[in-house]
Amino acid sequence: MFEEFRNPEKAKTLLEAIHRITRHPCHIMEICGGQTHALARFRIEPLLPKEIQLIHGPGCPVCVTPVPIIDAAIQLALKKEIIFTSFGDMLRVPGSKNDLLHAKAQGADVRMIYSPLDALRIASENPEREVVFFGIGFETTAPIHALSILQAHRKKIRNFSVLTSLFTVPQAISTIAQDKECSVNGILAAGHVCAVTGISEYEELAKCLKLSISITGFEPLDLLFGIYTCISQLENQEYTVQNAYKRIVAPNGNPKARQEIEDVFEICNREWRGMGNIQNSGYQIRQKYEQYDALKRFNIKTDNKKETTPCQAGEIMKGKIAPIQCKQFGKCCTPEHPLGAPMVSSEGACAAYYRYNF
Ligand code: SF4
Question: Do residue 205 and residue 126 come from a single domain?
Fold first, then answer.
């Protein structure tokens, strides 16, 4: 199914074109962890001209979920009445003291699921228990989270709630691009995010921050075409958005999905792990649906105390260092014994470097 987008001859042609047009040094950030893994897996970076430096962005929802939210998840999971449901990746992400797997070992009813709709099913099968879903993600997964709340409301499932840790990407790009220690001038935007949101916010970013943005997919030819269109803009000093993923991304995104998000969530400030508080960079549940907000329902307060950890995830997600520049990489920090979320997550940059032996 993916072979069409992994064709070696077409890849060679695109690589030759990239080499032909690249004249100046540039730093291109791929936003999504899925792109980071694909670039590492298919060994694309070593094939690029030496002028191009790829840096890894903050687009891994597991990595950016902050410690106070992990601690809140553990607090909820340890309540006897609660069945706590979560994507598998979140179970091993360290909070301030331990992780959800540790809570499970202490007797918490923590269940791994693949979709919030699974959590909804568990809630309807267990009316005597409370079911909490750990809702992490970006604009890509926000519609399915919204749908689970709308369905719970419609079906009158009253024992279901969501601990939300939902982020929006453009504000993070803006923060990174304005950080004087970051040197990003090109962006490979995440195609699946833009498939929901459309591209207008990115057009604003490109213009205001003088960024050359290409909306890109996840297969080798998608990534190479994204890099080609990004370099082509940079070399011509054009600060616009090129849609290099037209088979998936429509200019105005997915209006139905956007409407579901709009119905259930409102924009809020969000704490990003390692990056601090970014204004208007997240979704929170609207007052109309607050009965489905796990923090309110169980009166859990999140505590924004400063993290003390040798993990340099924040520096990695802002593109300031590469995973192998972290002193812990491959020594104290491995996938078996992770010190930070980027080594746990299947989309984390540290896990990509470790797995593909960079
Ligand atoms: S290698 Fe480990 S400690 Fe270092 S930044 Fe990555 S996750 Fe954190």
Answer: yes
**Does ligand 1 have an atom closer than 6 angstroms to the CB of 94?**
no
Please tell me the total count of domains within the chain. Answer: 2
Do 287 and 327 have their domain in common?
no
What are phi and psi for residue 134, nearest 5 degrees? -90, 100
Look up the domain containing 203 and give its range: 25-299
DSSP 72-122: HHHHHHTSTTEEEEE-GGGGG---SS--HHHHHHTT-EEEE-SSHHHHHHH
Does 219 map to a domain? yes
Question: 351: Cβ below 6 Å to ligand 1?
Answer: no
Q: For the domain that residue 199 is a member of, what is the CATH number? A: 3.40.50.11740
Q: Please give the average per-residue pLDDT across 286-297, as a whole number.
A: 97
Do residues 164 and 284 touch, judged by C-beta distance below 8 A? yes
CA 352 / ligand 1 centre spacing (Å):
12
Regarding whether 267 and 211 lie in a shared domain, the answer is yes
- Dist CA 149 CA 289 (whole Å): 8
Residues 164 and 40 in one domain: yes
Mean pLDDT, residues 280-298 taken together: 97
The finding on whether 85 has its CB within 6 A of some atom of ligand 1 is no
Question: With a 6 A CB cut-off, is 342 part of the ligand 1 pocket?
Answer: yes
CB of 323 within 6 A of ligand 1: the answer is yes
* pLDDT confidence bin for 318, thresholds 50/70/90: confident
* Same-domain status, 252 and 345: no
Query: What confidence tens digit (pLDDT) does each residue in 132-149 have?
Result: 999 999 999 999 999 999
Q: Which of 92, 315, 329, 347, when mutated, tests ligand 1's pocket best, judged by the most ligand atoms within 8 Å of its CB?
A: 329
- The pLDDT value given to residue 274: 86
In angstroms, what is the span from residue 174 Cα to ligand 1's centroid? 24
Domain match, 274 and 344 both: no
326 lines ligand 1 (CB under 6 A): yes
- 39 in contact with ligand 1, CB cutoff 6 A: no
Q: Are residues 321 and 218 in the same domain?
A: no
Q: Is the pTM of this model over 0.85?
A: yes
Paired strand residues for 215 = 189, 243
